[in-house]
Amino acid sequence: MTTDAIRLSPDDNVATVLRAVGAGESLRVRCADAVTEVRAQEAIPLCHKVSLSPIDPGTAVVKYGQKIGEALEPIAAGRHVHVHNMRSARARTAP
Amino acid sequence: MAAEFLGYRREDGQVGVRNHLLVLSTGGLTGQTARRIGAMLAGAIVVVLPHSSGLIGRDLELQRRAIAGLATHPNVGAAVLVGDNPVVMAQARADIAPSGRPFASFTLDECGHDALTLTDRALREGAKLARQISRQRREAAPVAALGIGLECGRSDPSSGLIANPLLGLVADWLVDAGGRAIIGETLEWLGAEHLLASRARSPEVAAAISGAVLERERIAIAAGLDLTGSNPGPTNIAAGLSSIEEKSLGNIAKSGSRPIEGLVQYGEAPPGPGLWTMDASAYAPKSLTGFVVAGAQMLLFTTGVGNPYVSALSPTIKLSANPVTAAAFRDQLDFDASPAFRGDDTLEATGAALRERILAVASGEATWGEILKEGDEVLSRFGPAL
User: Fold this and answer.
1) How do beta strands B310-311 and B375-376 pair?
2) Is residue A94 part of a domain?
3) How far off is chain B from A37, nearest CA to CA, in Å?
4) ipTM of the prediction greater than 0.95, yes or no
5) Are A85 and A70 contacting, i.e. CB atoms less than 8 angstroms apart?
6) CB of B214 within 8 A of CB of B308?
7) Considering the domain boundaries, does residue A93 fall inside one?
8) For the segment B316-366, what is each residue's pLDDT rounded down to a tens digit?
9) Rounded to a whole number, what is the distance in Å from the CA of A25 to chain B's nearest CA?
């Protein structure tokens, strides 16, 4: 079976899509030997991130089992997660 | 049997993977003279250090380290130095002589301040040196003699997913074989520095790594710079990287899993075998030259969307795991890691193939960057000068 997205750690709430996906597509998300499914709510370009579960504003976006930033707004499962709805938590020059 | 490559043994015990004639200008004033000489000598590599008189402090130290490090680099069979500053050149001669590396050096002052006389004298000596080093032959050498710099540039999420972990496998292999592996790009440890620090050989090394990262973060904050848009830059963001933390976590995968022996300063040679970190700029030209000045004979350079830059002195193996990039740059990427991205090949099998390619390039196979003459050397500059 093909894999559409990779979840690097079971702690991650985002996965990386291995091909450009369209809105409404059901994605097979592999994490080691486990495979789960998530429906893409919008188009997501190759190598970009899809949310796997709802992420509350101000809470951590997790990839590699590590915090890679914080959500700027409520992010539902299946959404494209990128600079429009998350931001770095480091080197902050403004709140 | 332990892995071997065919290299050039140097009098000082180092082993080169190339046998370059280096034409080095110790300052920008004689840069065109160096380029003129280099153009007239077959196969010569020209490096021009842009600054010279007026450098102070850390930049002055680096200038000395760079001249000596480049002229006695293991891939340099012989060097021709030209420059405008007799004091700098006297220091260079004293620094290079103990290595036993053949070299010739001339200042404008010794040539009646005449750049054409300087060209003539340096060209004639350079020609003799070129003939001399052409007689040297490659000999079998252990992988332990290799120092490899690990770089990523114009990265995308495929870099952190596949290409950089692949370099991590190579780093582990090299370290286990007794060689030296080194990563730099300090700012791109930000958000992942705790993972590097946890692998430090000692608490002092851990503190040095964390301190170097926090200093870069402090500089960014003091400059009022929003890292998002700067690092990750626009190219990274378009490709899918959303924050410095995400980029860093992918970046440090290049370091593999072995203990980190220490943090060296920019262009400083690691004092022993193993895995090392270098406190350095994340801009690839400066980062690669830092590794080269520190003595790395080879560089492994992953890219997400494509990056043409390579070192002039150290063959740079360029690779990508992004299937679009791999298809677009068949005549510029030395290694295609996209089968591992697609799941058609395992990371381990891909790593084994990459190790074979490294040994082939170390033994003389040309990289695309060498063939296409993409190579350059760009030295970092830190502070003000007089």
Assistant:
1) parallel
2) no
3) 18
4) yes
5) no
6) no
7) no
8) 999 999 999 999 999 999 999 999 999 999 999 999 999 999 999 999 999
9) 19
